[in-house]
What we know:
Low-confidence stretches of chain A: 40-45
Number of strands of chain B: 2
Low-confidence stretches of chain B: none
Number of strands of chain A: 16
Distance between the termini of chain B: 17 Å
Structural class of chain A: mainly beta
Radius of gyration of chain B: 11 Å
Mean pLDDT of chain B: 95
Order of helices and strands of chain B: HHEEH
Number of domains of chain B: 1
Distance between the termini of chain A: 38 Å
Radius of gyration of chain A: 27 Å
Oligomer: heterodimer
Mean pLDDT of chain A: 81
Number of helices of chain A: 1
Strand content of chain A: 35-45%
Shape of chain B: globular
Helix content of chain B: 25-40%
Strand content of chain B: 15-25%
Strand order of the largest sheet of chain B: 1-2
Order of helices and strands of chain A: HEEEEEEEEEEEEEEEE
Largest interface: A-B, 25 and 20 residues
Strand order of the largest sheet of chain A: 7-4-16-10-13
Shape of chain A: elongated
Amino acid sequence: MPLSRIKSQMESSQLRLDSSAASTDVNxxxxxxxxxxSSTGDGYAVILEDAxxxxxxxxPFVLSEAPISVANPAFRVGLSADQTMSHxxxxxLNYDFVQHDVGGYYDNTTNxxxxxxxxxxxxxxxxxxxxxNLDVYDFIIAFYKNGASHLQSRLxxxxxxxxxxxxxxxxxxxxxxxxxxxxxxxLEVYMRSTSEDGSGTMKAWGGTDANNQCFSGSLISRTS
Amino acid sequence: MTGYxxxxxxxxxxxxxxxxxxxxxxxxxxxxxxxxxxxxGRGDFIAKWKHPTLAKPTQSQLDAV
Lengths: 224, 65
């Protein structure tokens, strides 16, 4: 189409992708400021249809209905106080201190888990300080999805001929992109500390300043 | 509750007594043995035991030590 014809149509605030077709046909139209007699009226309309003239709905978008705005889920939580655990035992960290929780999907009172009700791929992060001070030489942080280990991050220090290795006060981080089904899937964080002494009460650092530990996440791509 | 131990280190201590030959490397290898606590008040339990030569301790063995 010559530019002059496009320009004239643009000036009338109407760009038709298939101007010979009715508004409900394939290859529809984009009306930026409808002035025709159709129901679009003033304003704008984007109408997409498939070859059978059905509205093109599906996936995360519903184009046949007025759009709705749903806040993108995001959260950041921490331990309000130190949490103790047994030597060399994977222990769920009960992150109870909520800094933000858009959507309200984090349970900080009963199960201490993130269970979003919007399906999609989520970016999850955790950073946790080991705080046992008991010659800890093996430190693990893990994401558990639906009660099973999903991803682990491990710091292990063994130096031949050297005793009392200690990763005390070290912060271990883990991150992953994990699909959550928006109904039953949930994510938790576990920690394991192993002391060279083979005993003692192990400890995860906690505190409301949340500077040395946090569990966070956000939705990055919806799937429904 | 059977199989659960709420006192810190009670389970790992019992396991070491039942299997005195169990090495720290095996005990601390998550591909072989996983001790777990779901922080639900029930306590520590054996979540995985795949040691090539030592059998998973029975409840009676753990109770006896």
